[in-house]
Amino acid sequence: KTGIKQTVVKEVVHQVFNVIFDALKAGKKIEIRNFGIFKVKRRKKRIGRNPKTGDVIPVPERNTVTFKPGLEMKKEIK
């Protein structure tokens, strides 16, 4: 749609994802207007269960990436 070579677009998109990834590794929040917000959230330790055996398994604290869609995205998806 843009008239730009696919290999160039692929490299640009790859670099954008790398910047987002590096920022999240550094604990920063990434906001893309009208799209959403990516941020790292700390999950508390908890007790889980093995679904096959029912055994109790402790799940340690960990970081996870969350995404909250922006207003424009929410409006378009509905």
Structural notes for this entry:
There is one protein chain. By secondary structure, the chain is α+β, with helices and mostly antiparallel strands. 35% of the residues lie in helices and 35% in strands. The strands form two sheets. The protein has a three-stranded antiparallel sheet with strand order 1-2-5. A hairpin with a 6-residue loop joins strand 3 (46-49) and strand 4. The protein is elongated. It starts with 5 loop residues before the first helix and ends with a helix.
List the main descriptive attributes of the protein structure presented here.
78 residues, alpha+beta, two-stranded antiparallel ribbon, 2 helices, elongated
Present the secondary structure layout.
Layout: H1 6-25, E1 30-32, E2 36-43, E3 46-49, E4 56-59, E5 62-69, H2 71-77
Antiparallel strand pairs: 1-2, 2-5, 3-4
Mean pLDDT across the residues is 92
Overall geometry comes to elongated
Which class do the helix and strand fractions yield?
Answer: alpha+beta
The rounded distance between the terminal residues' Cα atoms is: 26 Å
Give start-end ranges of low-pLDDT stretches. Answer: none
The count of DSSP E runs of length 2 or more, i.e. the number of strands, is: 5
List SSEs in N-to-C order: HEEEEEH
Percent helix range: 25-40%
Rg calc? 18 Å
Estimate the strand proportion.
Answer: 25-35%
Note the total helix count: 2
Largest sheet, if any?
3 strands, antiparallel
**How would you write the strand order of the largest sheet?**
1-2-5
